[in-house]
Prior knowledge:
Elements: H1 5-23, H2 34-43, H3 47-67, H4 85-90
Amino acid sequence: MVRFLPFLLSLVLTVYALFSCIQTPDEDVPHLPKLLWIVLIVFVPFAGPIVWLLMSRAHANRQDNVVRRQPPRPTARPVAPDDDPDFLKSLDRYRDPRTTVKPPDPEETPKPKDSKGSDESSSETDDGNPER
Length: 132
């Protein structure tokens, strides 16, 4: 059993490296053409797969270092939902109009009173009956 271990290890390493090489996009293959890497992996036991795995990882790490960008800074947004004006506006459709008191629109300005004293409601109480 022990004498088959190097063969099995070489076979597993070769299969793993072969699939890794085949799945790697052509522009990410380091230094050599992909077909040459496949030939090296298959026909050079142990050394071919190990060199492929080391070179591909080093190449991937180098590309990650080059392409790394600064993360975008988050825009200044409110922290909590009750501080977010867009969220509060979206809640208006769920409010019951019978229980919500809305302030008057700023477009509607109160009319100035006549100086002649034509105030009709001064002699009425809150329920509409004249005072006694």
